[in-house]
Design a protein that fits this description.
By secondary structure, this protein is of the alpha/beta class. The chain has two domains: 6-234, Phosphoenolpyruvate-binding domains (TIM Barrel); 237-270, no CATH class. Helix content is 40%, strand content 14%. It has eleven helices and eight strands. It has an eight-stranded parallel β-barrel, surrounded by five helices. α4 (60-73) runs parallel beside α5 and α5 crosses α6. The radius of gyration is 21 Å and the shape is globular. The mean pLDDT is 96. Bound molecules: 3-methyl-2-oxobutanoic acid and sodium ion. Sodium ion binds at residues 42-44, 55, 82, 141.
Length: 270
């Protein structure tokens, strides 16, 4: 299985569906590596792993440490790291300073940034200087206050048109792939048909060139908040709870550890 690269991801436009998953740790990165073409170190880790209310409090340092851990676990997947809120919106120069730290200090192949055509100049600035960028449009969690919560986007005719326009401009600016979150099938299809780069959807219908889910959501490891678009493929949270309950009970009852797990006790197993 050859290593996925940015040009390989880009070349999958309209072909085989792209499988994308998120990871925040080395072990999760290793677990998903055989199936994930594109592993995204999403700033959703702030909510999933840190218990923050939104992604707004996630810092560059958090993304760099988690990004480096995920890169250490990925042998095949292409790894892209989210730029956190406040680290890229001010100017192309600010974005380059922080994106260059991300790629240098993590070993990731690219970055993902939220925003429509207002971010096109920044996308071009980074791409021209060697940093591949995946723009993220539609439901943008870093805009939670502006949206008044996590809500599907582009549902009115005008809002849908604006999203399609954003997609075209961001593609022209040099984005290698487009993340489309929380929009209708109609809009997702029109976006996918109007850009030459692969669209990766989350809550954006099967029309996209690929799909991504937050890994903890699909494994049943995070239940604080489950969006409509999540499909839970396993209920690992329940299995973890029952294993831990058994451990607790065995400790209380003196059943654990048994002699086979003790040093300096005469037994064949030692
Ligand atoms: O933060 C995140 O997990 C994301 C996903 C949509 C990939 O941005
Ligand atoms: Na994100």
């Amino acid at each position: 299985n050859k290593r996925m690269t940015i040009p390989l991801i880009r070349s999958m436009k309209g072909g085989e569906k792209i499988v994308s998953l998120t990871a925040a740790t080395k072990w999760m990165s290793q677990m998903i590596d055989p199936v994930s073409d594109l592993t995204i170190v999403g700033d959703s880790l702030g909510m999933v792993s840190y218990g923050l209310e939104s992604t707004l409090q996630v810092t560059l340092e958090m993304m760099i440490l988690h990004g480096a851990a995920v890169v250490r676990g990925a042998k095949r997947a292409c790894v892209v790291v989210d730029m956190p809120f406040g680290s890229y919106q001010e100017s192309p120069r600010q974005a380059f300073q922080n994106a260059s730290r991300i790629v240098r200090e993590t070993g990731a192949q690219g970055v993902k940034i939220e925003g429509g055509k207002e971010m096109a100049e920044t996308v071009g600035f980074l791409v021209d200087r060697g940093i591949p960028v995946m723009p993220h449009i539609g439901l943008m969690p870093q805009h939670v206050h502006a949206m008044g919560g996590f809500k599907a986007q582009g549902l009115t005719e005008n809002a849908g048109k604006k999203l399609i326009e954003d997609a075209k401009v961001l593609c022209e600016a040099g984005g290698f792939s487009l993340l489309v979150e929380g929009t209708s099938e109609t809009v997702a299809r029109q976006i996918t048909e109007s850009v030459r780069i692969p669209t990766i959807g989350i809550g954006a219908s099967p029309c996209c060139d690929g799909q991504v889910l937050v890994t903890e959501d699909l494994l049943g490891l995070f239940s604080d908040y489950t969006p409509k678009f999540v499909k839970q493929y396993a209920d690992l949270g329940t299995q973890i709870k029952s294993a831990l309950e058994r451990f607790g009970k065995e400790v209380q009852e003196g059943e654990f550890p048994d002699l086979s797990r003790c040093f300096g006790v005469s037994s064949n197993k030692l």
